[in-house]
């Protein structure tokens, strides 16, 4: 039997080639991951209109995962929460009423992970172009999180994004001004990082989290599944506040 501890249902954009293999690395024994995909863009480029379209797929994706019998729902598109901040809370509430199971978004998990370290001063490493980055910074400000340093890869083309490597992310992080930062947040579900989080924490001397790592950490906490994932960062020593 697969998923004898928990079955997790994951909703992701069709272009995302990172989150599934990363969560597979992080997922402990007895926990199974089931995924459905949602079309956000047929052009190959990220856009606000594409994110509006992806939300229209959520009900269908939820029904598919409900039939699978999952114990929790993970929404793996971070930028949806930038464009539709009010939608996020209604989505989680709707899922809980419908299935009696927790629903966790990439953004809510990232915020919970940051707060678990009792700090508000963070550095951001992300992939977003100017408009999406502006919306993202607005969202952090609304959550009273102080972004003291930002480095963006500035990528909107999906094919370019899918070829970013862990080495690219490591070198980008090392190039940042982190003097005022209490932690580094690698923001997005489609840039790889979980294999280098431990190395970055050692080399930078501050906690490092990623959105994908935060998403799994959050749901395991919600389901009261204890794991020892110290190979993938100090976040797994923390609890939700």
Automatic annotation (TrEMBL):
It comes from the Bacteria. Pfam families: Amdase. This is Asp/Glu/hydantoin racemase. The lineage of its organism: Bacteria, Thermotogati, Synergistota, Synergistia, Synergistales.
């Amino acid at each position: 039997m697969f998923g004898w501890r928990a079955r997790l249902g994951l909703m992701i954009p069709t272009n995302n080639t990172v989150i599934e293999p990363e969560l597979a690395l992080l997922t402990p024994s007895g926990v199974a991951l089931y995924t459905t995909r949602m079309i956000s863009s047929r052009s190959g480029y990220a856009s606000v209109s594409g994110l509006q379209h992806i939300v229209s797929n959520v009900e269908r994706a939820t029904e598919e995962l409900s039939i699978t019998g999952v114990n929790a729902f993970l929404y793996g598109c971070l930028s949806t929460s930038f464009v539709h901040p009010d939608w996020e809370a209604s989505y989680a509430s709707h899922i809980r009423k419908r299935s009696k199971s927790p629903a966790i978004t990439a953004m809510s998990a990232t915020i919970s992970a940051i707060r678990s370290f009792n700090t508000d001063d963070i550095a951001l490493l992300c992939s977003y172009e100017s408009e999406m980055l502006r919306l993202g910074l607005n969202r952090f400000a609304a959550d009273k999180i102080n972004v003291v340093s930002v480095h963006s890869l500035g990528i909107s083309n999906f094919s370019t994004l899918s070829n970013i490597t862990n080495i690219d992310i490591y070198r980008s992080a090392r190039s940042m001004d982190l003097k005022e930062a209490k932690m580094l947040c690698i923001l997005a579900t489609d840039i790889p990082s979980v294999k280098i989080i431990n190395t970055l924490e050692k080399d930078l001397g501050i906690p490092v989290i990623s959105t994908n790592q935060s998403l799994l950490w959050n749901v395991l906490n919600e389901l009261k599944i204890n794991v020892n994932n110290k190979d993938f960062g100090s976040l797994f020593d923390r609890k939700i506040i």
